[in-house]
Structure formats: C-alpha cells, structure tokens
Fold this sequence. Notes:
The protein is an alpha/beta fold. The chain has eight helices and eleven strands. Helix 2 runs parallel beside helix 4 and helix 6 packs parallel to helix 7. The relative contact order is 0.14.
Amino acid sequence: MYFRKATLIIAAIIFLLLVGGGVYVYMKPMDGVLILEYHKVSNDDDVYSVPEREMAAQLDYLKAEGYTTISMRDFARARKGRVELPEKPIVLTFDDGYKNNYTKLYPLLLARDMKATIYVAVNRLGLDEYMTWENLREMEAHGIEIGSHTANHLPLTELSKDKQFEELRASKLLIEWNGLKTVYAFSYPNGKYDGGIIQMLKEDGYLTAVTGDAGYNTFKTDPYRLHRLNIPKPRFGLLEFKLRIFKAKLLTTLNIYQH
Length: 259
C-alpha cells in the first residue's frame, strides 16, 4: 500500500514538472529567428496544401503575437551586421514555385504588409501549376524574395558532382538573367545535402540554405544548415499551428538540432 502511494506521488510530481516545463517553454520568449516551411496555398487534398482560409488565420495569428516577417536576405544581412532584426522575427518560406503562391498567397501577404521568401525550381516555371517569370518579378517588386530550389528539383545527394554544380549554378543564373535580384537564398530539394554541396553553395555566392530540421536560428547557427519548421495541411486548425511553433521552441530549448 505504501509503495503504491509513493509511486502515485512520484508520478504526480513528474506530471506537474512536465506540465510546468511545458508552460515555461510555451511562454518563454525565444532568442533567434523562426523559419516556417510551406509549399501550396490551396484546397488540394495533399499534405503540402494549406487552405487559403487557414493560411489567413495563421498570418493573422502571427501578427497578433507580435511577429514581424523578414526575408532570408534580411537574415543574411543581419548576420553581417548591416541591419537590425525586429524583436520577434519570422521567415515565411514557400518551396517549388506553385501558381497558387501568386494567386492565393500573394494577396494575403499584400493585405497584411508581410514578407516571404519563395524558392523556385526554375525549369518548372511556366508549367500549368507553376508561376511565370512575370509573376515573380511582380512579387519581388512588392517585397517577396526569390530564392533557388535548383533547376529541376532533384535530390542533390543522388547526383554526380558535375550535375550538382549544374543544378545550383543554372537555377541562380536563370533567376538573375530574368530580371530578378541576385540570388542568395537556397532550399535543399527533399532536404538532402552534404558537405560537398554546402561548399559549392559557398563558392557560388549563396549566403543561406534551409534544411528540414525544426528549431530556431541564431547568428551562431550554420547559415547553410538553417532550421525550418514544416507547416503541412492542418487537421486541427489554428491549434495545430500553435503546437508546431511550440514544438520548435521545445526542440531549441532541448538543443536537439543545434549545429
């Protein structure tokens, strides 16, 4: 009987510590920059699609919580001491270059005076589901940064060194040759990379690259292994979005993804 009571007391103490720790992490202001990973803004029935209504709710929540959107270019400049970051910076990133980033996302950002960074796979531009160069130029003129997601969205670690370099160089040059600003931001297709690819990025003038590891980023984080929190199609509305941000705080607090 005594043993059972002691076990229950210990379990209760552990539970209270876990709850208290969770509340502390949730309420604790985080130093650093949170980067969110999106793909589509649509009602498509796949994990990469966030419906327009849900996207609007997430953007409104971020503004209400005092977050200020910055671009990856802003982050890179801040690392070099050229600008100061706002109190609660956040980066909205979108991979691939889907058409709905222009038709659905872009108006939401404009209405809220918010920034984003869009990583495009350049050889998909102009296809049915993807944006055009004209779309990109218009968005960039209104504060949206355009980054590279390679030329053909191929897993880089599965390619030869020559092909890797071609994917990195071609995408950067094509973006710049089509009247857009110099490309400094990169997103690894499928999150696959290695040290050799990072070295190529450095040599080709890229300043940042994002992974699929959740967590916050500071100026001490490797700029070619930046943490990014994936935001898939929500199943539980805004609550799920809040919990994912909490997850990034928790992982950062536990130092799980520190480089």
